[in-house]
Amino acid sequence: MRRGLRIARVLLSTQYALMLEYRAEIALWSLSGVVPLLMLGLWSQSEAGQALGLGATGLSRYFLAAFVVRQFTVVWVIHAFEEDALQGRLSPLLLQPLQPLWRYVAAHLAEQLTRLPFLAAIVAVVMLVHPQAAWWPSPRALLLTALFTWLGFAVNFLLQTSITMLCFWSERASALDRLLFFPYLALSGLLAPLEAFPPGVRSLALATPFAYQVAIPARLLAGEPVAIGPALAVLGAWLALLLPLCLILWRAGVRRYGAMGA
Amino acid sequence: MAMISVEGLSKTYRVANKQPGLVGTLRHALRRQTTDVAAVADVSFRIEPGEMVGFLGGNGAGKTTTLKMLSGLIHPSAGRVEVAGHTPQRRQAPFLRQITLVMGQKQQLLWDLPPRDSLRLNAAVYGIDDREAERRIGELAAMLELGDELNRPVRKLSLGERMKAELLAALLHRPAVLFLDEPTLGLDVNAQARVRQFLAEYNQRFGATVLLTSHYMADITALCPRVLLIHQGRLFYDGSLAALSARLAPCREVRLELTTILPASSLERFGTIEALEGRTVRLLIRRDQLTARVGELLAALPVADLEVRDPPIDELIGTLLQQGVIG
Question: What digits encode the pLDDT tens for the residues B180-200?
Fold first, then answer.
């Protein structure tokens, strides 16, 4: 346990130091996630907020919250892993007594930490431009948002890692990540709150992992009601499915690993 | 009990065949044809604890594939391997704590951070406490003549400094078995010598077992009393370096830069002419006659520059196999 905590501490601090070296790049990444803010601009000119039962202020807050939570659920493990496998950087990691995927988890968490100041600056600017979007979430809302954002990130990480494992069979598995992009765009709540969807599509979205990467934590942060129990049950089911799947694919994959380029 | 025991080890890769041109591309897309290539075929040997063994062979001979199987990086297609009492491909933690694999042109250090950050991480991963890690870093850094370099980003280090830092990182957990694949590749002569000296010292001090591949004969002669010779995936020789040297490199290559162009007839008496291009001459001279011949040619020829070196290993091995001297 103590060894695990020490590894986690050192791994996170090392990855944070590494991410700070790429801070300019990370600032640009933060800016590249502004789709919800664009949506905020577009929807704020319409009566949609009233029609969806959120009101103009509720809709603005939803999109601002969606922008914030999305910064913490983005996963790019497939691209990093594929590059490492192709460049031969995966080999030394496989020869250390630490499951290599932990390094990617730490890299994601460190990158999220590095995004924080840029995120704060962007949120402050948006609040100046859209004062009606400014609010202080309650401690309960913050806590639940943190929990659901983290669970959403975990599910997304495992989902993308399952596809990442195909790197052991195909040199360009990252192309398959595109398969996830469109359902994510349609069902995550990035472009519109789930209330805007027909009931059948909304139910479908809530059964997929995508709604838990944006819509659900964003609603929680914006102070909108969320059925916590069912949401936790869906996330738990996805975790229970994806975790063993990742491990099985990992074991099968490393048997095929040819250590090319290493 | 042997530290490394290998029996009938084989590795076969499936390689796609594609004919050039549009027809070949379409045919390849519709019906992929593959060939099985034996990278390593039925290799057997044993290495005792503390031995330093050189692994010789040309490009594509199967050296690196063998090292990857011994370290557990890839699974063998057939055969049995045991390293330090473990089956490598299972990659269990107690095995990984006992081995290291260093590849000359690959790095494990984090490129944008100083080596110290990678060392701190390695210490945590291998469960070495901070005090002990500092002690080991100090000890190894002294042996490698590393100082402030450990606090500079890896990308700012010279190739030699980087290689030394890589070795430090790879040996921090004090492995009992070292697999070294071209650890001196691309280094200048001084850095090569420093790395060699370090490896010899490490072996002596910690009794580590070392399996070393190198394109530089000097690495092997300085470190390895025993060598394995592999060619086209098959082991052709397992024995003392001295016995192999006599057969492998009875000659040394003398490269001359002359001030004037001379005919071959005036050079033949000094040795076998390997190449003659303008004022540049490459001669093969027997080792036992080298000093005398070099003295003679310096006195007799208009020499602007002279260099003595071992002929490339690949060429020698190929020639000897063709001649049936080994195998």
Answer: 999 888 788 888 888 899 999
B44-247 belongs to CATH 2.60.40.10: no
Q: What is the pLDDT of residue A95?
A: 95
User: Chain A residue closest to B12 (CA)?
Assistant: A258
Q: Show me where the domains of chain A are located.
A: 2-256
Q: How many CB pairs under 8 A join A and B?
A: 75
Q: What confidence score (pLDDT) does residue A90 get?
A: 92
Interchain contact B152–A (C-beta under 8 A): no
DSSP string across chain A = -HHHHHHHHHHHHHHHHHHHHTHHHHHHHHHHT-HHHHHHHHHTTSSHHHHTTSHHHHHHHHHHHHHHHHTTT---HHHHHHHHHHHT-HHHHHTSSS-THHHHHHHHHHHHHHHHHHHHHHHHHHHHH-GGG-----HHHHHHHHHHHHHHHHHHHHHHHHHHGGGGT-TTGGGGHHHHHHHHHHHSSSSS-GGGS-HHHHHHHHHSSGGGTTHHHHHHHHT----HHHHHHHHHHHHHHHHHHHHHHHHHHHHH---TT-
**Residues A84, A80: Cα–Cα separation, whole Å:** 6
Cα nearest neighbour of B117 on chain A: A14
Q: CA angle, B249 as apex, B243 and B250 as ends, to 5°?
A: 85
Query: To the nearest whole angstrom, how far is the Cα of B317 from the nearest Cα of chain A?
Result: 25
Tokens of B51: 């031995």
Contacts of A253 in chain B (CB under 8 A): none
CATH 3.40.50.300 intervals, chain B: 44-247
pTM over 0.90: no
CA distance B173 to B208: 12
Helix, strand, coil percent content, chain B, rounded in steps of 5: 40, 30, 30
| The domain over range B250-309 is classified in CATH as 1.25.40 | no
pLDDT at B29: 76
CATH 3.30.70 in chain B, residues? 250-309
Q: Which positions in chain A touch B62 (Cβ < 8 Å)?
A: none
